[in-house]
Write a structure and sequence with these properties.
Rossmann fold, 4-stranded parallel sheet, 10 helices, single chain, 299 residues, alpha/beta, 14% strand, two-stranded parallel ribbon
Length: 299
């Protein structure tokens, strides 16, 4: 009898576990705060949106709590960047997918490029507002298809309004970058983040202080010397450091270059807290545009 009771309990646990995976089918869980803001603009008031990554965090290394992991497991849809960006929580997303939770790797759906220096997919597609504009209907379609209780017409109307704002942003960035002479459109950053922006707006990526697409890597002395030589040869007037990372390495590079090089801060991989200059994707991109123009337009 006890054996039968144990089998019944096990069966109930399996059933409850399976049903739990779809118990919150009306929710969307988003890994990064940049994608979180974009997704919230699309969803509006149609569903709950949980964003796992806090403001001013590093998408390569941020971790999540047990409670957040449970939210991932019970989401109606997981929206994540993909292309290797979320190194600290990729296993959590993959485990949820294996358990039947729908997941959308947005970066894989917007014509990703590879790193020029070392190959491999570049996950930083959001630095190109055109690709974000292309991503919006992809996200909207998955929300309509996967998240219970939403009104598809509202979702698509929200998406179209946001696409129009992204088109305006793209035009503004192109107009502002035209203030920089073509020979001065050269970028040196903390690590390789702006390949998509460079491709869209005609910049040359001279190099990065950390010669990698992830902040988890570290530069060697020879890496810094090689980049310092390239900076000196290119006559770059400014080096750009990620706002979520200390700019010490960028300042070391500036010293080694032996030329007058300013260090400017960009919001490249994370939104900020409200009031800190980059609380939304649109605000972040406008702030970065101003900083790049300020750093490169004049000697």
């Amino acid at each position: 009898m006890s054996r039968i009771r144990a089998l019944l309990v096990a069966a109930l646990l399996v059933v409850s576990g399976c049903s739990a995976a779809g118990a919150s089918g009306g929710s969307v869980v988003v890994t990064t705060n940049i994608l979180g803001d974009i997704t919230r603009r699309i969803v509006g008031d149609q569903a709950d949106v949980t964003v796992l990554m806090k403001p001013n965090a590093d998408p390569h290394s941020f971790g999540i709590s047990a409670q957040q992991a449970a939210e991932v497991e019970h989401a109606g849809l997981i929206v994540y960047n993909g292309l290797g960006l979320e190194e600290g929580m990729l296993r959590t997303v993959q485990a949820a997918e294996r358990n039947g939770v729908p997941a959308l790797a947005v970066g894989e759906r917007v014509d990703p490029i590879s790193y020029a220096a070392h190959g491999g997919p570049d996950p930083h597609f959001w630095t190109d507002p055109g690709r974000v504009r292309a991503a919006v209907p992809v996200i909207a379609d998955q929300i309509v298809a996967r998240v219970s209780g939403v009104d598809g017409n509202v979702i698509r109307a929200n998406a179209e309004r946001y696409r129009q704002k992204l088109g305006t942003l793209d035009d503004t960035m192109r107009r502002r970058f035209a203030e920089i002479p073509p020979q001065r459109r050269k970028l040196v950053t903390n690590h390789h983040v702006f390949g998509y922006l460079a491709q869209r707006f005609g910049f040359q990526v001279v190099g990065a202080v950390i010669p990698s697409g992830t902040t988890l890597a570290s530069p060697s002395a020879s890496d810094l010397k090689s980049l310092a030589d390239a900076v000196r040869a290119a006559g770059v007037p400014a080096v750009f450091a990620d706002s979520s990372q200390p700019d010490r390495l960028a300042r070391v590079l500036a010293d080694q270059a032996g030329v007058r090089v300013r260090v400017k801060s960009l919001f490249s991989e994370s939104l900020s807290e409200p009031g800190q200059g980059a609380a939304t994707y649109l605000e972040m991109m406008r702030a970065n545009t101003d900083a790049i123009v300020d750093g490169l337009a004049a000697p």
